């Protein structure tokens, strides 16, 4: 039998069909094994742990056969209870395998201290973004006579006068005393009056 005759014979097609069946069977068995080995279809949905205490996190994850690892505390966030979870990885809704570790970061107990910068004789335009960047809140703005308009003259927090280098809690409200820019004119009028008085005195003499 020649090669051409064999390739067109029933015997060849039977063997070819058998080989195809064997290949599909092997592929099917491999896929089934991989599905079993990776526990495919049995993923666990990661719950939302934010705002839970560490104890509550432990109880919740134990029920799901998951574990947690506390990475660190973060700067105090007033939108979250003290010592509660602020961040987690993987995020809520992610699908993971049994025994997966969930990494968490918890809120600190309160705002830390921040050093008050030297802003006296700085303009309001300079002072305001500096204070906000440090986490402070701008409170009342009052004015008093001073040549420089909107120049920072004094800073207060809870009625206490602040000086550069003082340490107060982040998120504290800082009240500003600013120059009204009018003292120059007042001084000019005052100087004019004094000059007139001196002239009158000289004339009288």
Characterise the protein shown here.
This is PASTA domain-containing protein. It comes from Flavobacterium qiangtangense. InterPro entries: PASTA_dom. The chain has 205 residues and is α+β, with helices and mostly antiparallel strands. Helices cover 37% and strands 26% of the residues. Among the domains are: 44-107, Trypsin Inhibitor V, Chain A, CATH 3.30.10.20; 113-184, 2-Layer Sandwich (Trypsin Inhibitor V, Chain A), CATH 3.30.10.20. The chain has 5 helices and 11 strands. The strands form 4 sheets. A 4-stranded mixed β-sheet has the order 7-11-8-9, covered by helices on one side. It has a 3-stranded mixed β-sheet with strand order 2-5-3, with helices on one face. The protein has a two-stranded antiparallel sheet with strand order 1-4. A hairpin with a 2-residue loop joins strand 8 (152-157) and strand 9. The chain is elongated, with a radius of gyration of 39 Å. It starts with a helix and ends with a helix.
